[in-house]
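Memo to structure team: turn this sequence into structure tokens by end of day. - J.P.
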Amino acid sequence: MSAQSEIFDPLGTVAVGETRTPAWIRMRMVLGYDGAAYNGWARQPNVTGVQQLVEEALETLIRRRVRVVVAGRTDAGVHARRQVVHLDLTQEEFDGLPRRSPLAPGPALVRRINGILGRQDGAVWVHEAEVAPDGFDARFSALARRYSYRIADGIERWDPLTRHLTTWHREPLDVEAMNREAQTVLGRHDFLTYCKPRPDATTIRTLQEFSFTRTEDGVILAHLKADAFCHNMVRALIGAAMMVGDGREQPGFLASRLEEMVRDAKTKLAHPRALVLEEVYYPNADQLAARALQTRAKREDHDVDTRGAAVSQSPENRAD
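Reply from structure team:
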């Protein structure tokens, strides 16, 4: 009978499961999911998260518990187009992925896990899997994450066929005013006002991109990119910009709220159904390990951009 063990890689990431031999082969996996049916990414008691579905599918294939480490946890109802995870396998488990097929282990893993995830009726789907470069950590090696958000402002733009991917807003929104507001919070700041803090976690982040455009179909599309986003940060920023866009708040609201550093009744969250994790960015293979170590460096309170414009190049912290 095999013993329960925790296998650590050189960077400290834990792979949990019952195995007689170390799980040193790291796989990088890219997947997408429709978050409407799930209670976010993370495993939680009495509800279903995407992580649970992926790990249970892997357990069926590998015959032991396998933990996946995700690039960025998403809230309940939030979608992902190209989420990134890693998992660690033993040599025997890796070699056994193709079974009797001529496929390489990576493509074999994609085919087999999608065969199990197919029970979700296409709501969770793995796009690719491959052996990760040395030093790769899905969470800590990431340079940035990018989200999109769709808003249909005005009832004439409300489309029932896209309602699960779009926020419906009754009043028209001033896109130019929202863009001016978005520019005022770019840079490296303590985003406490716009975050739901986690215990012992910093709320200092570097917001690299924040913009709104009106697409050909009249829908407003927002894009946000940051080194990492803390809990509720994207939805709170979008919600604040919408309050300026429809006239509920005056210009300068986002910057003044940022400086107040207080989460209160003025912090309004945009609906999660329109939020999509679009992409996760990583450095070149030879910089992955260094990036993971740099990301673990604690953000300090003084290490922020008080002007709200330039993007700092100081070390980043963890990606929650």
